[in-house]
Here is the input.
Amino acid sequence: MSGDTHPGNEAGVEPRMLLQKGYSVGNPVTDAHKDNNEKVPYAHRMALISDEYFELAKSSCDGEYMNPDPINIRCLYALRLVDEVKLNYNIVISSVFNYAPVVLARNQAQCTSHINEQHILEPKCKLISSRPIFSRSRQLFLEDDSVDLISLSKQEKPWCRHYNYVPSYVWANSETVQEALQIRQGTITDWKRFNRSLSYEEDVESVFTYHQLLNEKSIQALAYSGDHDMVMLYMGTLKWICDLNLTLDEDWRSWTVDGQVARVQVIQL
Here is the structure.
């Protein structure tokens, strides 16, 4: 989807992109800054950090958690209490500014360092780099740098979500399956869930303007996001939706499935 979609359709450019009524986006990566800057407020809202840690970060960083001022020592210290790594900065206190290094006490470990960001309530499992090797008589998983995969031989409690993905390699690399999917023989020798060998330059920081364009064309959107996902934060999604300045049609409420509360929703026009 790009900014040229609708002008191209209107000009009769082929092939047409059939986006006439609406589209849906799930856990949508939209704006690098808006998405990631909500990690500290999210960690507080989900009780992963204390009120004191959050208030210290809030008062010290002036709402900028993703790219903090490198000479704002109070802010850097506050953010390090939350998480040193995942907030996209390195704490380096240079002697140029005549500041002493920030050192945390043992009881002040980074609060979210050991959280499973994909689902904060699930175990954070240790991954190994491995690659499935298939033969007619057996299936082996040998160490390799091409694919991140849980070692089947080392599965231990607790259960890890990644275990569910292991059979996909067996399925997708099956000649019978590839034939059924009409994949040309020889084009896929080793299927991967994530092909990390593709080389590209990431130069788009935000796609917010595309949502604006589609909204101006009266194209409806369904945006959904999980509230236990710390990679693609629902708070970031709410932020850019609010920035669209839509009219509130239905306020925050729960919706049910078979009489049980499933999620909460807000409808805006």
In short: Residues 1-5, 85-108, 128-150 have pLDDT under 50 and may be disordered. The radius of gyration is 23 Å.
